[in-house]
Amino acid sequence: MKKHCLSFAVMLGCWLGCGIVAAQEQKLKSEDVIARHLAALGSAEARAAAKHRLAMGQVTMVNRVGGSVNIQGEVNLITAGPKLRFAMRFPSNDYAYEDLAYDGDQLKTALLPQTGKRSNLAQFFNSQPLLVKEGLLGGALTMGWSFLHIEQLQPKLNYRGLKKINGRQLHELSYTARKGNDGMRIEMHFDPETFRHVRTNYHYEIGSRLQSSRNPDESASRQDSLFDLTESFDDFRLVEGLTLPHKYKLQLSVQTQNGSLLRDWSFEFDRISQQEIPDDQLFIIK
Predict the structure, then answer these.
(1) Residue 104 in contact with residue 283, Cβ under 8 Å?
(2) In which order are the strands placed within the sheet that holds 156-165?
(3) Where are any strands of DSSP class E within 40-181?
(4) How far is CA 237 from CA 19, 42, 242, 272, in A?
(5) CA–CA separation, 50 vs 10, rounded Å?
(6) Predicted structure pTM score
(7) E strands, 119-184, in order
(8) Helix H or strand E segment including 27
(9) Which of 103, 129, 102, 110 has the alpha carbon at shortest distance from 202?
(10) Is the distance from CB of 71 to CB of 61 less than 8 angstroms?
């Protein structure tokens, strides 16, 4: 009898616990997620005191589909206000670097020296400058981080509850810029215990009708082009009063009629500082 009572008590406790979690989830709004995320980032004083940031470390680029390259290099991420310089250097003639610069107005990416063309990643950023201009790329690592400027940007946010992502329950917010979203779907994910921002996925689709609207017959034979860029953040540590990720990963997936590509860049920052004041010329690619 006692055993049956104990089992019933355990089941009742689990049921009530699930009910409490569900109720808490239903009560959450997008503004609640943002407020808790900012509190997890650091105090209002610490956030206001940070004006610029330098993050340095190592990067490993791996081709998962569309090649077999695995190469290590160095990364510098420099940010001041909305300005951003995101540069990688690799010991390879075929893939020497990735370089992105945003001066607060114009976004530019560098051409690869061997081909005179932009990489797949640079092409994606060029076609979707919203990621940088809206302060999304790099998450809380950058001073332009969108949630630090939410009143100015005024995006449309929709809280979607807890979602299972790669076996992990995360709070999900959809993000739509006030203007210039251009059909991109943006989903942002936050740890349910700490409310740290741990993931963003950008999904963009170019339909065949858009590709060849002037020629319906040609359009019918084409497939849609699908682009997914995913950012992941981990290894959070305290830096001058702010809790910032020291591990960062970009993964780009491209599916077109010409083939598929899956490539990722994994970053480990061994130094993050807010003391150096960057020269404005650093945010210009010459």
Answers:
(1) yes
(2) 107-109, 97-102, 83-89, 70-80, 52-65, 259-273, 242-256, 225-239, 197-206, 185-190, 168-176, 156-165
(3) 52-65, 70-80, 83-89, 97-102, 107-109, 156-165, 168-176
(4) 33, 11, 8, 10
(5) 48
(6) 0.85
(7) 156-165, 168-176
(8) helix 2-27
(9) 129
(10) yes
Give the single-character DSSP code of 42.
B
Parallel, antiparallel, or unpaired for β 156-165 and 107-109? unpaired
Tens of pLDDT, residue by residue over 140-176, are 999 999 999 999 999 999 999 999 999 999 999 999 9
Q: Would you tell me how many other CB atoms lie within 10 Å of the CB of residue 129? A: 17
Nearest by Cα to 142 from 227, 79, 72, 69 = 79
Q: Degrees (nearest 5) of the Cα angle 113, 114, 119?
A: 75
178 alpha carbon, distance to own chain's centre: 18
Determine contact, residues 137/144, Cβ cutoff 8 Å: no
Q: Read off the pLDDT of residues 53-88 as tens digits, 9 standing for 90 and up.
A: 999 999 999 998 877 788 999 999 999 999 999 999
> What single-letter amino acid sits at 120?
N
Distance separating alpha carbons of residues 217 and 256, to the nearest angstrom: 18
